[in-house]
Amino acid sequence: MAGRSLENLQQRYSHSAPDKKRGGMGFGPRRGPGGRGDGAKPKDAKNTIGRLLKYIGGYHLHLILVLLCMACSTVTSLVGAYMLRPVINTAADASIPAAERIANLGGIVLTMAGLYALGILSHYMQAKLMMIVSQNSIEKLRNDLFDKMQGLPVRFFDSRSTGEVMSRYTNDVDNIQMMLNSTMTSLISGVCTIIGTLFFMFFTNVWLSLLVIVFVPLFLKLGTSISKRSRKYYTAQQAALGAVNGYIEESITGQKIVKVFNHEEVCVDEFKTLNGDMRSKQLKAQFFGGIMGPIVGNTSQISYAFTAGIGGLLCIHAGFDAGGLGIFVNYARQFARPINNLTMEASTVFSALAGAERVFAVMDHPAELQLAGEDAADQTPETIKGHVILDDVTFGYVPDKTVLHNISLYAKPGQKIAFVGSTGAGKTTITNLLNRFYEIESGTITVDGIDIRNIRKDVLRQNVTMVLQDTHLFTGTVRENIRYGRLDATDEEVVQAAKTASAHSFIMRLENGYDTILQGDGANLSQGQRQLLNIARAALSKAPILVLDEATSSVDTRTERHIEKGMDRLMADRTTFIIAHRLSTVRNCNAIMVLEQGRIVERGDHDQLLAMKGRYYELYTGVKELD
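Given the sequence above, the corresponding structure tokens read:
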């Protein structure tokens, strides 16, 4: 059996890039020597840096201490290295008595030890203080991002994959954290080291310093060239790694389907194709990442050799002291290191700033409005009874495609209104508008005579409870998941809600009853049991408006009949909107709306619609009436 081509597989499964629809979940290493991060560059670096500085700006004292510690660490390192000059000169000066030379060396060595000890302490304090600043800043950034997401409209999440949204918390925030933790201090420290080293080099010997500077363009050219190629191959490696992990994730999730259709051989072939592609890209990425250090290091050795040779001639012919030559070649050797590091860290900074831009783009996204419309006025009532009217409502998820056309209906408190029709007819869309998950384009929806756009969104949703077709259970106990419907409910009310939904009996058969921990969206429960908990959650709510969106689609017919009485108790005295494909569940509704292509084509109760022998009759009997 032939599998799909490599190009096709990469397009489908590669999700390493944060902006792709599959989103990256951060599988595997994202960084490598000479090419850390994804190589992206920010579009507005100045504005992004300004916003990031606001997050660390609240720690002025910490940052001042970090800079002082950094300066102290750099100075002690350079001064300590400079003190090798008198050590070498003293040891080599035969005109001084041996005992005096030993005494002088002892004093210098103790001074050097003290300086290096101070440098170690400074570096320790610098790292600790910067870690406090970065972690606190990242904590605040994550909190702000999460808070913002709670206020974003449903449209935002419907138009983006879960992986794409999650990548803001993983890839993007991780890159920012890495930059604040180490890269920023490395950059500042590198600049300080370069400036300090240059000062001591010129202080020691001007001509040798000019010779070292001649090699700087060569260091930069080599470092930049290798870094670019390395970054390109690491980006390709990350894409290949994302494709492999995406394929593995999908294959494991769909193992039953793979086995049902005997697709194992094709899966193996396709995986070998992706795995082989990743191997070839990893070879190039690891090779260019690995040669960065040796090439730049050996180039600096050439500079070191030239410096040592010219310095030796100066010692012979110009009276340059041996100690001065010793410390100078040491400075010359370490001079290339911070330059190389700055070249490598640049890609990390670009990736972090690009990630920060994506995070701030989410934060800048317009939040849900409590009141909608230019002329909206707060008319939120103290209590809601549940008299709902839709008047000539038109709506489309995108401007050029209308989903609902001139929908008009009403529901009095305690009534049950059903929506039936083909898939995609617009049934769920109506309930989404009732909850103001989306704002209508034209027409009005009123609750108790008040336009819902003039009712605070939080209050409106407190008075509308939903049982959705797709259940979602949170990590926690069964009791906590039911109590999600009303957080102030007592344990007795939780149990009563479970009994109303006919969930009590199966809950008591669980290992720890209501205290059983559910994980993985209730993976240890059947789909029907998860839906019963979802119904119990709604039963616990005191909302006067109830929406049942295929609420019994995941339970068998016997269980469905078993919970009918519980559902009747759940719907009592509530305005209920029922979306159902099983038309047997809507026979007792006060009114049934038959939708096709976003329009109400029939309306009436069960008997009236059957008598019409129209679309409802076709759906209910499966028989199309002949003309």
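Residues 15-39 have pLDDT under 50 and may be disordered. Try to locate this feature in the token string yourself.
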